[in-house]
Specification:
The chain is mostly helical. The protein has one domain. Helix content is 74%, strand content 0%. The longest helix has 34 residues.
């Protein structure tokens, strides 16, 4: 395992696109997280113009609710697309520059090629999770009064949800990269599916013209992003009566993990059957 990761590190350490896209991910994530409260309160202000009793401004940067809020905003599809594109580029470059064939010549088998990419995905997901957790701790400590260890750790399990979302989303990208093998085509079709095709299918399946069903939540991208489905805003919950998510559901995690396992199986089958 360590040997496979070292091979991957040698490929990415001097690869500028990897670091540029990773940097863009952190920039968009940081700006989004810091602007989230402002944007929510801007919506509240616009809503108050049409209400007889105004809704008070909300605060999202305090424990224990901060864990849920940070993971929700960090898993919006417009942010998640950056690490996914990184994975697609790393995989398709293997075919473009024939390094995947060279790896086989040097003694790696096809299973090890796939495992090396999965290990890289696990490592990226783990690093992102640790960095988000550290950022959450810093923001939460700065904004929460009367801190206690129980309060800080109460909803920290949402970080597991973030890790699983990050991991499965990148495995979806791996699926596109290995099967299509072309960088431009893989990125185009993946972003088309994430931003256009699945949202259209999601709303179509929920429309009155379709037979009554509950299929929409089980679509791959929607299932991954629904691990942390809602932010936690106690004030709105009390005022509007919204039944918001209180914890990470095991069943919600199993659905995208099932898709990820299926896609890994298909990729392995394709690697075995197709020429490199």
């Amino acid at each position: 395992m360590i040997k496979l990761l070292k091979i991957e590190f040698k490929k990415i350490l001097t690869y500028k696109i990897f670091w540029i896209l990773t940097g863009l991910y952190f920039v968009f994530l940081t700006v989004g997280l810091l602007m989230a409260e402002f944007m929510i309160n801007n919506i509240v202000d616009n809503t108050n113009k049409h209400l007889p009793i105004p809704i008070p401004h909300v605060t999202i940067y305090f424990f224990p609710w901060l864990w849920q809020n940070m993971t929700f905003f960090a898993t919006i599809r417009y942010v998640m697309i950056f690490p996914a594109i990184v994975i697609i580029i790393l995989i398709t470059n293997e075919y473009t520059f024939k390094t995947i064939r060279q790896n086989v010549i040097n003694g790696m088998n096809k299973a090890e090629i796939l495992i090396s990419k999965l290990l890289l995905i696990l490592l990226i997901s783990a690093v992102m999770t640790v960095l988000l957790a550290l950022g959450t701790l810093i923001i939460g400590i700065a904004h929460t009064s009367d801190l206690s260890l129980v309060q800080v750790l109460e909803k920290s399990s949402f970080m597991i949800g973030f890790f699983l979302t990050m991991m499965t989303f990148q495995i979806y990208a791996l699926f596109f990269g290995f099967l299509l093998r072309n960088t431009g085509l893989s990125i185009a079709l993946f972003t088309l599916y994430v931003f256009i095709a699945e949202p259209i299918l999601y709303h179509f399946l929920k429309s009155p013209i379709v037979f009554n069903n509950n299929i929409s939540p089980y679509l791959p991208v929607n299932a991954a992003l629904s691990i942390t489905e809602y932010p936690s805003i106690p004030v709105l919950k009390k005022l509007v009566g919204l039944n918001l998510q209180d914890s990470i559901s095991i069943s919600a995690c199993l659905i995208p993990m099932g898709y990820a396992a299926l896609m890994i199986g298909i990729v392995y089958w394709a690697l075995v059957k197709m020429d490199l």
